[in-house]
Each structure stands twice: as structure tokens, then as C-alpha cells.
Sequence to fold (378 residues):
Amino acid sequence: MELKSFTSDKELANAFLRFPYDLYKDDSNYIPPIERAQRQLLDSRSRAHIDSGTLCRHFLLYSSGEILGRVSAFFNPQLRTADDRPVGAVGLFECRNDYSAAEILLRNACQWLKNQFGLARIWGPLNGSIWNGYRFMTRGFDSTLFVGEPYNPPYYPLLFERFGFHVLQEWDSLFVSGVERLETLLPRGAERLKILKDNGYRFENFDPLQRPGQIETLRKVLLSSYRGFVGFTPVSSARFLAIFETMETLLDPNLFLLVYNPNDLPVGFAVAFPDYPRALRAMNGKCGIIANLAYLFHRERRPRLNFYIGGVTPETEKEAVGLGRAGFYFIVKKALEKGYDEIMLTLRVKGNKAHALAGRCGISPQHEYALYEFNYEN
Fold:
């Protein structure tokens, strides 16, 4: 086996980006990521990394001229543990089902982080920050993916665990079909929404005429709501705008919610998107006119709705006013009015309050995911 590593090398970068197309060529479930965005993750000077000062090194493993696997090591100075210790990250991991190959890749990536930056703890898979993609899927491989979902061969978690990684945090997703079943999730939501409105809370949809201000408001309330989550790092206005723009074509203003308290301060948000996995798969990771036409031609006529993200600021959460339940009701009710009959509640941290609501309705998660940690001190 021959290991090649690089920081900036056009030929190796091209090989690095081509490898997944070979690995997943027979997997009809795989959605190729947009190549332009992936290429940015290989460059420490790109907008994906420059705000955080992230440095990276990439590794390719060959055997008889063929690639067996790849991985990247990332040092993001903003990535830290709950006790404020720096953490390294390994991501963009793809590998044949060969532990000897995975061991070489992971050992070299982890050692680079340890030797260059003195890092004892390493998280993965994590592409430098959670804003760039992270987590393995651990359950749900036999059903259709949704856009933005982590996806990998089922053996990836086993390769990490055999190397010495252990589960740090878990998430799940559940899919709810049928109007009657969806309505079982709504009790008390309407009542809570009315009470909050009567008390001076404002529930506003996205207004394209106020786009810059509303995107910045979303960024601020999101940063406040997610502060303290595993892997969370700040994100600049410019970087957040770039992330938002990748999803903006899917945006339905009626399914984008910002909530303001009686003092006119933003305190909560929720965003749902129609899900077009077949259309994104048809783009084959490309941009441009041909890719856009492929997207439009293959776009699902009756998409599922992805309840993608929501949050409440810590101060409002402590007040226990039921804002999360009211916001959930607001979005689901709007979705039902628009004719959606399947809603996905996606990428939820295991153990959060949303689990209790679904559990009481007899609805169990169908997909699960995990982020792992390797610790040189153990």
C-alpha cells in the first residue's frame, strides 16, 4: 500500500474527489455532494475554513494504483470540548471494507493532528466544523435518504470503533405519514400558540423583501439556541449567508418561522424544506445549466417535508413558556394546509423534548447517526 498526503495538490485533490463516485457506483441511494463545495473543504484558504482559521491535511491510500480510501484531518481552533480543550477532527472519510486500509488512514490523520497541534482528543467524522457536514449513519440504510442526511456504508462505524473511536453523541430521524397520524402530534400546540400570541409574542414567516435582515436574525438566534451543543462553533455572517444560499432555492416562506418575544427580541425559529433526493441525485454533484435541468426534470411531484431545524434561545427555554411546542404546531399546521402528508423530523439529538412527544404517539425513529471520539489519553 502507498499513502499519499497533501495540503494543496490539484491532481491528488481530483483523485480524492473522484473516489466516492467509484465507491458508490452501485448504490442507488447515494446522493453525490456538490463537487464545488467539496473542493472548498480541501482548501484552508476557502470560505469554508478561513473564518475559523482551520488548517487541513488530506490522505489517499493506494494499492496497485487503485485508491483504497481517503480521509482528511482538520484543526479548527474554534472546535473545543465542554471544558474548553481543543479538539481535532477527521472527516471526508471514504474507504473500502478493509480494516487494514482504514487503520493506516486514521492512524496517519490522527497522528498529524497530535504531532502538529498537540491534540489528544479527535472527533469524527467531522469536516472541520458541523457547518460543513458530520456524523455517520448507523441505522436506516435500507430506506430512502433525505437531502442533507449523513450517509455511508454500514461498515464505517465498525471501522472507527475497531480503531478506538467511541460514540460521543447520537441523533435520529423519524418519518410520519398520513394526515391523521400527523395530527396526533399537535395536541396543545394550538392552545400554546394562542397563549403566546395573546402575551405579545410574534410569529413571522420569511419575508423576501427583508431577506438580509431576516437571514442575519436567523443566524443570531440559531447561534444562541445551539450554543453548548457538541461540535458547535460560531459562524460569520458571510459564511452563514453562503450556507443559507445553498438551500434557498428550496425555501418556502410559509415554512420559515422567526419568533419574537414581547420585547421584540428574536427568541426562536423553525425551518422546513420540501425534500427532493431524486432530483439532487440526478445533478450528480455538478452545477450549471445541465445539472439544473436534470434537477427540474427529476424533481419529485409529491415531496416529503423535512422539518430540518428549529431552536429556542436558552433564556426563553428557561422560562418554560412552551415556545418549542407552539413553533412545531405552527409549521406542521402550515404543512398540512399545503397538502403535505409525510413529514420528517430529522437529525434530532437523542433525548431531547421532541422525542417524548413522538414517543407518546407511538412513533419511533427509523434512522440513527453518531459522532465519535478518539482519545490518546485513554
Remarks:
- The chain has a mean pLDDT of 91.
- The CA atoms of residues 305 and 343 lie 5 Å apart.
- The first strand starts at residue 2 and ends at 6.
